[in-house]
Amino acid sequence: MPNEVVIKDVDGNKTAIVGDRLKVDANLTVQDIEIGAVEIKDHDGEDRAEVNSNNSLKTIEEVPTTLVMAQTSTVTAGTRVQLGTNTCQSVTIKALVGNTGIMYIGDVTVDSTNGFELSSGDSISLAVNNSDVVYIDSSVNAEGVSFILVN
Q1: CA torsion sign, 53 to 57 to 62 to 67?
Q2: Alpha-carbon dihedral angle through residues 126, 131, 135, 141, given to the nearest 10 degrees
């Protein structure tokens, strides 16, 4: 004769067993759960995502592999010139050493009195995804910049 097991809840009531399952009628109270470091791995290697102590996701961009260097100049002060269309991660622009006036760096609204000013030999680096968003203008005719793009 098989042994019979009777399961009772805390109030002494019998609890049903259906097949190999125990019927449980309960409420589970859950609060915040703190866990330690968590790793997120890529699917086919050992790369991992890291979360910094300030809760920001640490990212590492791929190392740029392409450089594009060029020079451009204005023909007439007050007539802006676009740097050209080049996909990039950043562009560094340097006012030519021989310039006698001010170079103005900006977007499509830059002109010979408005923009980021560069004197002869000054430079600025911009994080842009294409150099075509950058325009130059000058306070003196036929002055220019050299620039280098990183992609």
Answers
A1: negative
A2: 100
Confidence of residue 123 (pLDDT cuts 50, 70, 90): very high
Q: Which residues contact 77 (CB under 8 A, 6 or more apart)?
A: 101, 112, 137, 138, 139, 140, 141, 143
- The verdict on residue 17 lying in a domain is no
- Which residues fall within 8 angstroms of residue 110, CB to CB, at 6 or more apart? 80, 104, 135, 136, 137
Work out how many domains the chain is built from and give that number: 1
131 domain residue, yes or no: yes
**What's the pTM?**
0.63
Give the strand pairing for 144-150 and 67-73: antiparallel
